[in-house]
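Why does this matter for the project? Reviewers at the last site visit asked to see concrete outputs rather than summary tables. In response, this paragraph embeds two records directly. Each consists of the residue sequence and, immediately after it, the corresponding structure tokens. Nothing has been edited or filtered.
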Amino acid sequence: MLTYELIKKDDATGARAGILHTPHGDFETPLFMPVGTQASVKAVSPDELRDLGASIILGNTYHLFLRPGMELMREAGGLHKFMRWDRGILTDSGGFQVFSLGALRKITEEGVEFRSHIDGSKKFLSPEISVAMQTALGSDIVMAFDECVPYPADHSYAENSLHRTQRWAERCKKAMTRDDQSLFGIVQGGMYKDLRSESVMRLNEMELPGYAVGGLSVGEPKEMMYEVLEYTTEMMPSDKPRYLMGVGTPDCLVEGVARGIDMFDCVFPTRVARNGMAMTHTGRLVMKNSDFTHDFCVLEEGCGCYACRNGFTRSYIRHLVRAGEIFGLRLLSLHNLWFLVNFMKDMRAAITEGRFTEFRKNFWDKYEYGKKR
């Protein structure tokens, strides 16, 4: 069973440093989880993930449900054995992917009927089926099946959705069968404080091992996301881990940590790497830009990723990206993942050493997300 140990809390903000105790190891928080959608973090091996410091990765229930499927995952002995990963795994419930299908799905109280994006065949996911799939995957953290409220949504829609999500969470809890897996509930409620409050209260009554904040980073302004996050985390229990789903840009990580979030995940670092973008402490580098043609510096001085510590230059990586060479995209993927995983470790050190406010200020003094160079 997963537990959370609070080590240090920042006096000026809600930032926390802790330890997540799981069946596959103890991991320091705050942390970033690379996303392995289909039992693989794109272009990166398990050994490389370990080398860059990743402690927990995320697997996608929806995609693994469609292929290779529940029976093969049972036969394989679970996701850890299947993908040769010996550290933590969190699996999402499949809810977000199903609801993003739009017209291709139909929501009922029992669950969601949808058509596979692979072959158009009819499929069905319910709280019980989602938990059964995650049981077969053998993840350390199982996410409750929920309905992700779109933005914008009126109060009535968000309220009805929230109540369904709560009923589904209770069904997920009843469906859990393994002592080595921990179920996280998901706080929903759209952008409405009263609904977020109700969601937290009702989930707290279930006494789950951890809680996630869902339904954010779905198109709302970042200031609104931070506002919702601020009052939501203040209502959440302090002795349980808090997970903000689907967020992975440095600015959102800093502000999420400042509001008491312990865990994050996002496809962002590997997705933008495949589009030729590098992440740095001052903003993004669009490697296709001609500015880098004769730039023989590494992606970022002082970076410990495979690309930077081995001296691969911006000029060389630009050449690989423009030539469509897979190695260039791998170098950028390794760099971006190293950047985010170790960015979180730097924040943890700032919290434990009592200098998080300074860290946050220094970050904003030099970071510009939209800056293209």
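We now turn to the second protein, recorded in exactly the same manner.
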Amino acid sequence: MVCPVLKLSKINKRLSEFFMLKDVTFELFKGEVHALIGENGSGKSSLMNIIWGAYTKDSGDILIDGISVSINSPMTAKKLGIAMIHQNSSLFEHFTVAENIYIDNKPYLNKTLKIIDKGKMYSDCEALFKKLGFTLNCRSIVKNLNIAQKQLVEICKAYVSNARIIIMDEPTSSLTESESLLLFKIIQELKKSGVAIIYISHNLEEIMQIADRITVIRGGEIVGTQSVKAMNVDNIIHMMTGMDLKERYPKLNVKTGKEILKVSNLYAGNILKDISFSLKKREILGIIGLVGSGRTKVAKSIFGIDKIDSGEIVVEGNKVNINSPEDAIAAGIGYVTEDRISDGLFMYLNVPENITAPNISKVTNKHLIDRNIEKRLTSSYIDRLRINVGTLNTKAAYLSGGNQQKVVLAKWIMSKSKILILDEPTKGIDIASKVDVYNIMNEMVTKDVSIILISSDVDEVIGMCDKIMVLYNGKIAAMLPRNIATREKIMSYATGSRHN
């Protein structure tokens, strides 16, 4: 019988008074892509941190090639041939791209004196990028890169590590479709060379495409392991949640009202060209397009983050001049950004402090924050939105992705925005949390809020929107009512192969 390259046997770890990993057994074989999936907060990252050495187990055994090992630090993990691509950047921000990639594999002119051969390091990096099809500049300082570029650097760092086991935690969460395809190509190369990969993702279609086996974890326990060939999306959802989510998009059919927002002939930053659309009260408008089509630019222009070159914005029949987010908020517009970590949350403030951040006046008493009022107000939102916080003093950084997203939504619901722009609100969160977000949207619509949903998920916009605006190259390629929108029709407009 083939010996697994990695085996976890009855791993236990108490992480808090509310949560622990219980008797976790898991096997990984040479040349295998083994997907680990579960809801946010199910224990995936905690388990990976035990393999990576960031946490130490309370009990149980870790075996590499059948031999019991003790992994008490990431350095030990590296020595055992384990590498990890983190969901959030773990790079040295002030180093160059090449310096980060070869941080553990520096080429030396003199190894004794630790003199680095920088010429070889940069030429090796350029050759690597050429081989992988990446277009990054090896000499760029990492702090100047965007999220997707940093993720590509993390991938390259793992690729050159000569690791036998690579843990990939949501590696495509910030990548474009073409960048994700490059990653899948790298994964196939790694598989051929015998590298074993643990792949964590909420994207079930992606998992079905690249994984060999799937293990589902729920509430800190392994529910089961199956071959990908023996499973379908419905099976996986049932294993993850313990319930059947037959209705993944619980759209309510709410009667829309009068026009609340009108955007006319909007031009911005040589990207958006003649954007005109309207939004009715209680309506959900979807905006979709490929990367670079201008999806997020529309949101940032309406919200006052990016300057508008020309055009007109009318809210409830009144023309408004929006030159800043403050102007937008005053006009009744809220904006949930795509990057909740960098732009949506104060990661080291607690949950009530985050929820009340744009609503300080509601919790102040004689110009001082009244913590009792803050607690009372925010507790109702935490209950309504089913935010699993542990305690109210829990900092946003320590919440799961789905709960972080609900906190961002809570602060804008509290602000009583009439128009809410949601930019990729379900990206990187599990299926059950996605349904929670959809139900929050439904609740807001029934309370007369109008929503602009920006998404790269075609099924999501079809499932949750009343009409769908498809962008191509900064222009509106189509405006489709929900009843005639299909995946094929949307993609044909989004790729420019079909025109109105």
